[in-house]
UniProtKB/TrEMBL annotation:
Keyword Nuclease recorded: no
Keywords: Heme, Iron, Membrane, Metal-binding, Oxidoreductase, Peroxidase, Secreted, Signal, Transmembrane, Transmembrane helix
GO molecular function, one term: peroxidase activity
Organism ancestry: Eukaryota, Metazoa, Ecdysozoa, Arthropoda, Hexapoda
Keyword Iron: yes
Pfam families the UniProt entry points to: An_peroxidase
Protein name, UniProt field: Uncharacterized protein
Gene Ontology CC entries for this record: extracellular region; lysosome
Length: 836
């Protein structure tokens, strides 16, 4: 019998392996009845009995000690509920995967129709069917009315803004999906029971209005805005914007191609998302006394830096109304949330439908299952501040001394550039009459809530602070060089806060260290971690499920007391699309201190009613029905829309104990939760991963359970290892010097707040954590580590050799690949199809 430590060697004359037995221990053995030292046979027998007795006692002691150690060890690895805390250390196949390696993605399914005689003509016919379906959809859209401005549905649409380039790509994705369904229909493809999908088929080439040549200089010092040219082997796809989300596991569509996930048990439908929200994710008011809302605010800000799901819109980018009368035809991309007649909240408004439009399909260049488009880069590159398209970056720049364009108030304060668009879902007539507008930033979602807008303003100010300092250090630098250097530093600081302050709270210090997610701030000579084989692209399940855990953190009331003595609070929904208090003196200070002084809710299956029935409700003066949306229902619906497989599938993928039966699930969640889940779901195989993951008790030292820890840590490990411009790189022109890196390691969110607020003078050093008597006291800003950020290491006078003035690296051989980053029209409209 062998174990994992048994040495293997190739068998002689064969291709298999054999186990080498250990070399036998060689004892001296003399002739029979001859004993060393003249010991008699009887004495020898007595000694043998004594020896055997001692060995027996020793064996018993060892067994007892082993049992005790096992109990202690299991407790040390478990959370307060007994759940495993260090499953990642042994989560590889047969224990082979290092905890500091990403989990390998599940291989894509084989093309289910590969045996069919799919020739050129069949492919052309399928593409023609797809183009016709798109044409029919566009004709339908011409007669549809969009959502009324400033309704909850319209605000939801604005919170998932889709840019023009994404709309063009989504049209191609729609054609590909419709073509795949046409092939499946003609070849009688039927999905097999379980999580099967049609797989990836032959390539398909459509007229591409966004193709141009891409020149990559892999010695460039600065990132490209779109994230391209980061990986030499995959310059257009690994981590770039406008590419499909990566699949950690294969999708689970009802038809194997594109229809939202359904139950695997006969024709039974999955329980309505709103019913799951009501029965399992009901309201709770238990706060987490250890952490503040700043954790959720920074988390949302950072999330918007790496995820931006493209929503299906009309041809002109208008919203789609899915809750239409039965007499009107519904848009084919509608997937509304069903509201049951006995709904305790919506029945009073006689509402039976919650608007929900499917995420836009991403083009893949192949026949195959539906994918979704990520408009953001996967890298922590501060694109949320600058934008991830060249055009957006240019709009936000002043082109003076490397600074960003800002609006200067009468009293000299810097605000973000104003948005004068009356249909942006934020601006209100009452406010514009007072000269108060919403804002523009690197991300269209910046106005979604007051605290998020404040974070955008904070980092935009910080860029200008860095630009001024760099210009002082290097007066000869031009605008472009100053801008790019400031952008590079700011992106590094944002990444450092994420891995130094944010992730250790989510995952716990020990797990973060085991996964290699902590910065190497104590070892500037640590080896380079970049791995070009790692795809940092964002996983679909991360964007559509796992990282939406933060919605459970949001409290119903926010502490807006300005002196922390007299209690004063405001409801969450009144802060949504309401950034106008930033126009007041110390507006940003009050918003930031609200986030720093309000405790978050616990990460569990419970949500505030502010989230489950008042989302985007809007103020009374809007004169629209005062009933908001249910964010939990929308999250569950989004996971089904994306074909995200069920909870047990991800448990298996993460090498966690299975939950394929109710008895097994009882070991992963508490009894009360299990009872609620069993009342709603027919089988464990139906449980949505969002519901299952949030139902797990937190691991020791972390704020959530094993499955979320696995999914979140894997994504952030990929972001770190798969980024050739990662701020801790030790080789290449992208790297910082040791002196520069030492300054970046001093960065903290508290220091960023102190330096760029209007008048905050005291703050906790760890602003995502609550005030403690020991370890996290209030401090003067002057004493906060990193408040005095030294830009001296960026002075060219202190660097040898000097950097190239253009900052774009040394000359090198360019690599040319095909990109989709242009709005140029195609030279021909003919459909060309290639099958391989």
């Amino acid at each position: 019998m062998t174990d994992e430590t048994t040495p293997l060697t190739a068998a002689a004359g064969g291709s298999g392996y054999v186990v080498l037995p250990p070399e036998p221990t060689r004892f001296y053995q003399g002739p029979d009845r001859v004993f060393p030292g003249g010991v008699s046979p009887r004495s020898r027998r007595n000694k043998m009995r004594q020896f055997q007795c001692c060995m027996g006692i020793t064996f018993i002691v060892i067994v007892i000690a082993a049992l005790c150690l096992a109990l202690v060890f299991s407790d040390s690895l478990g959370g307060s509920d007994g759940s495993p805390s260090f499953f990642f250390v042994v989560n590889g196949t047969d224990g082979e995967l290092s905890p500091s390696q990403p989990l390998p993605d599940e291989p894509a399914a084989d093309w289910a129709l590969k045996q069919a005689a799919l020739g050129h003509q069949e492919g052309v016919q399928a593409v023609s069917a797809g183009i016709k379906a798109l044409g029919d959809r566009e004709i339908l859209e011409e007669g549809l009315q969009p959502n009324e401005v400033n309704t909850p549905a319209f605000r939801h649409y604005r919170s998932l803004s889709t840019n023009p380039e994404a709309r063009k790509l989504a049209r191609r994705g729609y054609v590909e999906n419709q073509a795949t369904m046409d092939i499946a229909k003609r070849f009688n493809y039927t999905k097999q029971p379980g999580r099967s999908n049609i797989g990836w088929g032959p390539r398909i080439v459509l007229p591409d209005p966004t193709v141009l040549r891409l020149d990559c200089d892999f010695n460039a010092r600065f990132r490209r805005s779109t994230g391209v040219c980061n990986n030499k082997q995959h310059p257009r796809t690994f981590g770039a914007s406008m590419v499909p989300y990566r699949r950690m596991v294969s999708p689970d569509y009802a038809d194997g191609i594109a229809s939202p996930r359904e139950s695997h048990h006969g024709r039974r439908q999955l329980p309505p998302a709103r019913q799951v929200s009501l029965k399992i994710h009901r309201s709770s008011y238990e706060t987490d006394s250890n952490f503040t809302v700043m954790l959720a605010v920074f988390g949302q800000f950072m999330d918007h830096d790496i995820t931006a799901t493209s929503l299906t819109t009309s041809q002109e980018g208008e919203s789609i109304d899915c809750c239409v009368p039965e007499t009107r035809k519904q848009h084919p991309e509608c997937y509304p949330v069903e509201i049951l007649p006995d709904d305790p909240y919506y029945q009073q408004y006689n509402i039976s439908c919650m608007n929900f439009v499917r995420s836009a399909p991403a083009p893949t260049g192949r026949f195959g299952p539906r994918m979704q488009l990520n408009q953001a880069t996967a890298f922590l590159d501060a694109s949320v501040v600058y934008g991830n398209l060249e055009q957006r970056q240019s709009q936000l720049r002043s082109f003076i001394n490397g600074s960003l364009r800002m609006y200067i108030t009468d009293d000299g304060r810097e605000l973000l550039p104003i948005s004068s668009n009356p249909a942006d879902g934020c601006n209100r007539v009452q406010m514009t009459r007072q000269g108060k507008y919403c804002f523009e930033s690197g991300d269209d979602r910046a106005n979604e809530n007051l605290l998020l807008t404040s974070m955008h303003l904070l980092w935009a100010r910080h860029h200008n602070y860095l630009a001024r300092g760099l210009q002082d250090q290097n007066p000869h630098w031009d605008d472009e060089r100053v801008y790019q250097e400031a952008r590079k530093i700011l992106g590094a600081q944002m990444a450092h806060i994420t891995y130094n302050e944010f992730l250790p709270v989510l995952l716990g210090q020990n797990l973060s260290e085991a996964k290699g997610l902590l910065p190497d701030k104590d070892n500037l000579d640590a080896p380079d971690t970049y791995d070009p084989e790692v795809d940092p692209s964002i996983a679909n399940c991360f964007a559509a499920a796992a990282f939406r855990f933060a919605h459970t953190l949001l409290p119903g009331l926010f502490n807006v007391s300005r002196d922390n003595r007299s209690p004063e609070a405001v409801e969450l929904h009144k802060m949504l699309f309401n950034p106008f208090s930033l126009w007041a003196e110390h507006g940003i200070d009050h918003a930031l201190m609200t986030a720093a002084n309000t405790p978050v809710m616990r990460v569990d299956r419970f949500f505030s009613i502010e989230v489950t029935q008042k989302l985007f409700e809007g103020p009374a003066e809007d004169k629209v029905p005062l009933c908001g949306l249910d964010l939990v229902s929308l999250n569950i619906q989004r996971g089904r829309d994306h074909g995200i497989p069920s909870y047990p599938v991800f448990r298996r993928h993460c090498r966690l104990p299975p939950v394929d039966t109710w008895e097994q699930m009882a070991q992963a969640v508490d009894n009360a939760t299990l009872v609620s889940i069993r009342q709603i779901y027919e089988s464990p195989q139906d449980v949505d991963v969002y519901t299952g993951a949030l139902s797990e008790p937190p691991m020791e030292g972390a704020i959530f359970g094993p499955l979320l820890s696995c999914m979140v840590s894997d994504q952030f490990l990929r972001i770190k290892l798969g980024d050739s411009h990662w701020y801790e790189r030790k080789v290449g022109p992208q790297r910082f010097t040791k002196a520069q890196l030492a300054e970046i390691y001093n960065t903290s969110l508290a220091a960023i707040i102190c330096r760029n607020s209007d008048g905050i003078t005291r703050v906790r050093q760890h602003v995502m954590q609550r005030l403690r008597e020991e370890g996290n006291p209030q401090m003067d800003c002057q004493d906060i580590k990193g408040f005095h950020f030294d830009l001296g290491p960026w002075s060219e006078a202190n660097q040898e050799p000097k950097l190239h003035r253009s900052g774009m690296g040394r000359a090198s051989t360019s690599v040319r690949v095909i990109s989709r980053n242009s709005t140029k029209e195609p030279k021909t409209a003919n459909v060309t199809l290639h099958i391989d």
